[in-house]
User: What shape does this take?
Amino acid sequence: MSELRKDPIVGRWVIVAPERSAKPREIKQPQEERGKICVLCEGNESNTPSEILAFRNPGTAPNSPGWQVRVVPNKFPVLRVEGELGRSGVGIFDMMNGIGAHEVIIESPSHELDLAFLPIEQIAKVLKAYQARMIDLANDRRLRYTLLFKNQGERAGASLAHPHTQLMALPITPILLKEELIGAKEHFNYKERCIFCDIIRQERELKSRVISEMENFITIAPYASRFPFEMWILPSRHNADFMKVNNADIAGLAKILKDSLLRLAKALSNPAFNYIIHTAPYRRPRHDYWTTIDEDYHWHIEIMPRVTTPAGFEWGTGFYINPTAPEDAAQYLREEEI
Amino acid sequence: MNATILVVDDEESIRRLYQLELMDEGYKVILAADGQEGLQKVEQENPDLVILDIRMPEVDGIEFLDRFTQTGKKLPIIINSAYTDYRMDLTTWAAETYMVKSSDLSELKAEVKKLLVGKMEISTNGEGD
Assistant: This one.
């Protein structure tokens, strides 16, 4: 029988309908074509805008081969750094200019290997690049939030197979993040504890939704997972802000990220997925802004395999229908040999 | 000699409009109704610049860019689409510029001029094909 589950942070409802579930091996993923000429590959640096950041071999020049991770502005950005915010009202409507930043983090010089199959040290460099860009963009007082998101596979919105992540720095805090912040704050006001820390504590006790735990991080299938095989990676020690993760923990995060993505790749035969990093917004002092984010929020990565397609019901209600119980997904993923 | 511009767009009215406007500017203009014909025209007519629509039947603008890149040729390409969302498609980086279609062609014509001047300078410096 299906059941309705409520996400304890944002109050979103999910219908878990396992009778409609397919076993992971039955969920076949179309394999995408590789080997097309790619602007992100090493040797094609002249086809991208000039790099903002790169981890390079000693003695190599910017915008030339010899890099391990490279960050470039999006050639055709959706939001631009240049200009004024120009906040204004048009009747009851609010608007502002399309100010922000839109960057691409190229995760490897090679086109062939997805992030999950890169060495842990390489993944750590990718995470360091995420962090460095987020810290740099924090200096721009117009920006409120930087979202790092990865689209892998055509079904997840990726246009190129070359492993990459995108970054968008925004002049507003996105609504999904706000919902999490508000939910976490309400819990903190009532219980004086971080809701994410409470979730981690409970999941550790129950064990049924824990996928792996190592090096100060835990991967779980969230209780109210929106998607089959959804995973969240959370730091076991309380920390609101991804920018404050130290080097040792970056190495640990690289390890568990690889572990989680490998399990997913093996269980579902390289599915398309998105992942996003949700972290505390840039704290700009302003009216009515709370100061407890460091206590009540907890940064994390949400990995969302794209094996189902949200349709009319989901758009109309904000509910999700998940045909795979998170406990089943966690068990499959936990038992996967990697 | 006047520069040659290839306009690849599936809408005949757009092709005709662009042809008239660009001929007024003194360019030679050739036309293609989809990406496949566009690729053939690149081979046959050796244009100096391409104005490329994205949504077209059969071979669309993205496929055109992918196939063109594989030829190893260098040519300034202006994506000229009614849609902004292809900005998220990194395949479009093979083009020089992404411009949203407008009834006022002054911005497009200015971009054509700018890119052709840039192409001339590269050729003069001996770095061109």
In short: The first strand of chain A starts at residue 3 and ends at 6. Chain A touches chain B at residues 36-37, 39-40, 47-48, 74-78, 104, 157, 159-160, 164 (CB under 8 Å). Helices of chain A lie at 120-137, 175-191, 195-206, 247-267, 293-296, 312-317, 326-335. The CA atoms of residues 239 and 298 of chain A lie 5 Å apart.
